[in-house]
Amino acid sequence: MSHQRPTSTEGSVSRASSVAASAGLGVVAALLGYLLTFLVVASEVRSGLEGDVAEWKGVAWYFYNAHLVEIEATGDVAGFGGTTTVDFIAQSDTARVTLLYAVPPVVLLGVGALLAYQFGVRDLGEAVVVGAPVTLGYVVVLAVGAVVSETSTQAEFFGIQASGSMAPELLPAILLGGLLFPLVFATSGAVIAAVVQSR
What we know:
The chain is α+β, with helices and mostly antiparallel strands and 199 residues long. Helices cover 67% and strands 15% of the residues.
């Protein structure tokens, strides 16, 4: 009996530590993806937005577009307004910007594989246990980012009020970008690494 408890405790500590590590790397993966996006599109954001929007917010919009999340733009002039969505990557004429669609999958595949390698994962069940919790950290960053990257303006011309705002669509940012992307790609990376290590 006394020999079984340490084993059980070690197993639970190992599982808890792998979940914590995975969630932490989820945060790192999101920040790394944003940084890579910044390196690719910072100059395009500067020239395209011309100082009307903070540069880091403009880059964030491209980062969300890379997760297939569109940017919602709303406008109102004297009580008349509407809403439209924008995909800056799709509208860009630059080939390197189109490559941004590959950034989140590649980063998440790498993170999943790294976790599987770090924890010596060799079967599919363990790969899922190690890869799936990446979602925990990733979804927090994308949810918070979608809120803080919103920008809004208000103006008055000859007594006529005008306002507008732009932000990533919140629900797709959470469900598609924050949950589905890491769940699919980080877990796939862990599974691939597990298959390679089991040979």
